[in-house]
From TrEMBL:
<dbReference type="GO" id="GO:0005829">
    <property type="term" value="C:cytosol"/>
</dbReference>
<feature type="active site" description="For OMPdecase activity">
    <location>
        <position position="73"/>
    </location>
</feature>
<feature type="binding site">
    <location>
        <position position="223"/>
    </location>
    <ligand>
        <name>substrate</name>
    </ligand>
</feature>
<comment type="subunit">
    <text>Homodimer.</text>
</comment>
<keyword id="KW-0456">Lyase</keyword>
<feature type="active site" description="For OMPdecase activity">
    <location>
        <position position="78"/>
    </location>
</feature>
<comment type="function">
    <text>Catalyzes the decarboxylation of orotidine 5'-monophosphate (OMP) to uridine 5'-monophosphate (UMP).</text>
</comment>
<feature type="domain" description="Orotidine 5'-phosphate decarboxylase">
    <location>
        <begin position="18"/>
        <end position="259"/>
    </location>
</feature>
<dbReference type="InterPro" id="IPR011060">
    <property type="entry name" value="RibuloseP-bd_barrel"/>
</dbReference>
<dbReference type="GO" id="GO:0044205">
    <property type="term" value="P:'de novo' UMP biosynthetic process"/>
</dbReference>
<keyword id="KW-0665">Pyrimidine biosynthesis</keyword>
<feature type="binding site">
    <location>
        <position position="213"/>
    </location>
    <ligand>
        <name>substrate</name>
    </ligand>
</feature>
<comment type="pathway">
    <text>Pyrimidine metabolism; UMP biosynthesis via de novo pathway; UMP from orotate: step 2/2.</text>
</comment>
<feature type="binding site">
    <location>
        <position position="46"/>
    </location>
    <ligand>
        <name>substrate</name>
    </ligand>
</feature>
<feature type="active site" description="Proton donor">
    <location>
        <position position="75"/>
    </location>
</feature>
<feature type="binding site">
    <location>
        <position position="24"/>
    </location>
    <ligand>
        <name>substrate</name>
    </ligand>
</feature>
<feature type="binding site">
    <location>
        <position position="154"/>
    </location>
    <ligand>
        <name>substrate</name>
    </ligand>
</feature>
């Protein structure tokens, strides 16, 4: 694995690079409405199963054409052969992050990585010279689309881990290793595990944290390992994913801006990136 230096990670000083709004809505029309309500407060979006089933890969390309950076959260999980063949068809030029379940094992993650590499070359072929294609083909692992390995879903709480007979902390470490050894550039983790993973793995891997519940939205739902946006960033997350606290807010733009302020304050408290 070629470690990514912190400076190479796809984040910048704009707090908007640290926030992915989950477009968890059932149609392109609803996604468009939400995006127009969010205005310029958001630059990065996450497309998950719901919107992808509704609108397919073409809408991912439309979002990218409009300047949004897209996290395609399909959480691939199958035998390596199947994952490889699916990943080859990724609209590579339109995607910043793609997820796989780390529990598929390092061979499966590697298959996704190889599929992405082919998708990247195929996408480039339309505009690039053979020399450029070769350069893309030989590029280091960490060019977009970046592959992220999902460790344990943030909807799993201590009751589930007890029922499964699994040690959460230890097994998250194993899953992280499987993902990174398979070629993932980073992980999707809960804020509960970020501090220990960052300490163990260093600044290189990208950590993206869902299960974000700002103070204004706290209430019962299906998320179990939750944190505020500020806590997640201070613990070592590079970025957070937020769905319902923004999507279901009476004023989504105001909610996004409050979260961005919290992210900015947390970044300000951290030492500069080395
Ligand atoms: O472990 C995981 C992995 C992915 N997600 C996704 O993030 C968003 C969270 O939405 P909220 O409405 O803020 O709960 C959603 O799209 C999930 O599919 C996750 O929550 N946990």
């Amino acid at each position: 694995m070629i470690p990514l230096s912190p400076a190479q990670k796809p984040f910048d000083d704009d707090p908007r690079s640290r926030l992915f709004v989950a477009l968890d809505v059932p149609s392109r029309q609803e996604a468009e409405n939400l995006l127009s309500r969010l205005g310029g407060s958001v630059r990065r979006v996450k497309v998950g199963l719901e919107l992808f089933f509704a609108e397919g890969p073409r809408f991912v390309e439309v979002l990218a054409e409009r300047g949004y950076e897209v996290f395609l959260d399909l959480k691939l999980h199958d035998i390596p052969h199947t994952v490889y063949r699916a990943a080859r068809l990724l609209p590579a030029g339109a995607v910043l992050f793609l997820t796989v379940h780390a529990s598929g094992g390092r061979e499966m993650v590697r298959a996704a990585y190889e599929g992405i590499r082919e998708a990247r070359v195929r996408g480039e072929k339309h505009q690039a010279s053979p020399k450029d294609v070769l350069a893309v083909q030989n590029s280091p692992s960490y060019a977009p689309p970046y592959l992220l390995g999902v460790t344990w879903l943030t909807s799993l709480g201590e009751a589930e881990f007890a029922r499964f007979g699994i040690d959460r902390r230890q097994s998250v470490g194993i899953l992280a290793e499987e993902a990174l050894l398979g070629g993932a550039a980073g992980l999707v983790v809960s804020a509960w595990e970020v501090t220990s993973l960052r300490a163990a793995l260093g600044p290189g891997p990208i950590f993206v944290v869902p299960g974000i519940r700002p103070a204004f939205s706290r209430g019962e739902d299906d998320q179990r390992r939750v944190s505020s946006p500020g806590e997640a960033i201070r613990s070592g997350a590079d970025a957070v994913v937020v769905g319902r606290p923004i999507v279901w807010a009476p004023d989504p733009r105001r909610a996004a801006e409050a979260i961005l302020e919290e992210i900015a304050a947390a970044l300000f408290d951290l030492p500069p990136r080395r």
